[in-house]
Amino acid sequence: MSRERGREDGDGGDRRSKTFRGRPESASRYEKLQSNEIFKRVCVQEEAEKTARPRLGLNLVASDGRGHLFVWDSREKLLHYVDVQHSDSLNADADTPSLFASKRFKSFKSSPEIDFNVRCIKFNRAGRSLAIAGDTGLVVVDLVPHLSAPSDSTGGVTVCRPSKVGGGKLFSKKSWNALRILQVEWHPYSDTHLGVLSTDGVLRLFDLSLDVEEAEQEYHLQAELPSRPGSHPLARAVSFAFGGEHLWDRFTVFILFNNGSIYVLCPIVPFGSMFNGAAIDELVKDAMHFTLPSSTRDSTVVRNASLALAWLESVFTGLAAWSESTGKEPPFSSFMLKAHAHVPLDASVLLQGPLSITGSVAKQAENIAYTVVGSDSILAVSGKLSCVHLYGVDDEMQPMWNVANPPRLTVDDDGHILSVGMLAQVAQQDQPSTSTALISVSNQDGDNGTDEDTSTPWTGQPAPLVGLADVELTLQESVLSSAPISLFVDPVVPERLYCHHAAGMDAIILQWLPFSDDSLNKRFTGDPLPSLVPLLDTCPSTCVAPSPLLGVTAMLDPLGETWLVAITSRGDCAVVEVKPQRLQASPLYLEGAKPNDDEGADAGVFQTMSRELLLGPKDIPIPQIASSGTPLTVDSIEGRAFLHDQCKLLHEKYIQYAHRVHVELTSFGTRLHQNVEDQHKRLQLVQDQVKQAQRGTGALGGRIEKALEKTWQLEQRIKACSNLPGLRHKPLTEAELEFKSELDAMRFQNHEIFRSVLDVLSDRCERVLVESQEYAKGFSASPSRMFSPGTRKVTPYRGKPSSPVVSSSQMCHLKAAVEQLVGRVATTISNLDLVDDSMRQRERLLDR
């Protein structure tokens, strides 16, 4: 199967939508983003800093993609936000393009109050829900309904109600044995699914639209055990990353363990998420090709491909439904498929790995990031050392199941899956140790060690990783001990990664990709290596390592350029403009001063000499020989005196100046030579940049043409989608409408009839009982008054007409009938309630 190039039409709407649109506003109500006082309110609680190194990364700033910048105030436990605009949108007088923020800000306060130390805030892809996470707690807030709430003055507070993820059972600060959160990530293909990795080695996927307290999917990660006692400590999961828009990577989760090994879970899909139909159809066709029996094809390949095909057809039922209803293939260019809840009843997802790594391994690994560039899937791993390891996936990811471990399912009365729990284990038959899976480059001999079965898809072997480069950040030990290295990907240029640490922020740009179009027939020789560009420096060489950055976020302007907003521990804000075609030449300094060497290099060559020498020799007038008068001769006394005075003046004006220049040049010769070399290096660097810009001109033109073509395709897709029926809310069928009308009739008509009949019978029964009792009393009072033949009937009661006598047996039958009718009415009411509950549950499940 050929690898895909670029982003699918239906899978990448989140990146293009995450831009803030410029609105014509008054520039007087805005100021530069760096000068806004909201950043002075960002801080970390002192008790959190005094404890051991936190497990969760620190990031207290986030952007919703709509021009709103949010920061968390740990001291007041408030969430502040400002409106951010581009200078072009405000028509502001700015020398260079910059970001402006509103002078007045709003604040949100949670009710009940958050009872844990917040370490990270993250928005989902739609920018509606904000996840607020700490080591011991996690809440989610829907901020869109509250953004329009009025705020009278600066510091106005709006109360919002958060939803506590996991309830009080999973993450709690009060319990000594409560779980701790290692990482929180929103799923890239769902606005309501949140992935959480905890210290118990369980990866949980919560569907916040249905149940906040119970996880929709749980995967208990169980890696391999040590080969022998005391060989190395048991590996534990420390980080994870969701896959992207490339084949089976959409349903893949990459899990990083602390010893540097990488494992894979595939397939994992959020129930109710939407995917592009063309991508799913490509996977179905590939799996269907390998399910065909062949004499040269292994039975394992056929079995694995058949399981994958069955899973795709069960999860994405829209493919078969469209083909059955229309009898032709669906228009996948404008067709979205919803992932239905489905899990094999006799198999669990296999924990594939550890993936064999060609290259160096990250010792004491901490963070992992995933990006897809064209046809390449890239993984970046950072650890406690000042090095970032870059790996490329050498083969396609494939789904694998473990038949030995059936999953644990929770279903409703209609058989719909509500939650799934699986034990993700490594395959027992080929469970290699980490030392054998992490292969070094020096131990391999080209392609001789590659098995033929390994290159064949659907064999059950996990895809290997190719080490692209090891980027050394050259950070001091004090900087590394202050905070871990965090990684994130540029939202516009996927081959550009950013890493921020206690000393600042750097950019890593990939220069070579294994499966790109221009390198398919070229073997990797180690050149060109990824380039490292410093963007922000908060710790110059003369300063002590500061506290870690309190947060970094990326914002997109209407022109598609990225702006990085970082907050330091002192409350300073740094705004770095990152253009798609190039980065800034020099880093931005916030704390301390530039080193003297940089100042000297920028000053130039002539600043090494004194200012008096640069002004030239002294302005001493030298008298000339008079044209009139007695001529002077050399032998005369007057001539010798005149020559002596002339030589003295010339020596004072020129000879002494030349001597001073000679001494100055001799003493500063080394510095002059160094400055000349620096100037040559800078000239060479500028020439290289000019050549690189010239080479990138053609690629930029191609990208512009592709962007225009993509824009035209999107316009056509919008026109096609405007004629499609709603995907989420489907119209009811005739049978469903008839059944609903019957339920309404039973609810509003029969129910009232039963109640009225019950009331009438109850009144009649009471009246008959009272009359029978009164008749019995009157009969017992005058027993001699018996009716005889021929006698006239006498009314037994005063002033009342005679009533027929009702026997006790008839009364018992009447009472039993009334009780039976009451029981039937109660049963009917309960049945109606059950039908209503089942209808509401079915409608909620159909929306998934």
Automatic annotation (TrEMBL):
InterPro entries: Nucleoporin_Nup88, NUP88/NUP82, WD40/YVTN_repeat-like_dom_sf, WD40_repeat_dom_sf
GO aspect biological process, one term: ribosomal large subunit export from nucleus
Pfam families attached to this UniProt entry: Nup88 (PF10168)
Location in or out of the cell: Nucleus, Nuclear pore complex
Region (Disordered) location: 1-29, 439-462
Main subcellular localisation: nucleus
Keywords for the protein's UniProt record, in alphabetical order: mRNA transport, Nuclear pore complex, Nucleus, Protein transport, Translocation, Transport
GO cellular component, one term: nuclear pore
GO terms, molecular function: structural constituent of nuclear pore
Protein name listed in UniProt: Uncharacterized protein
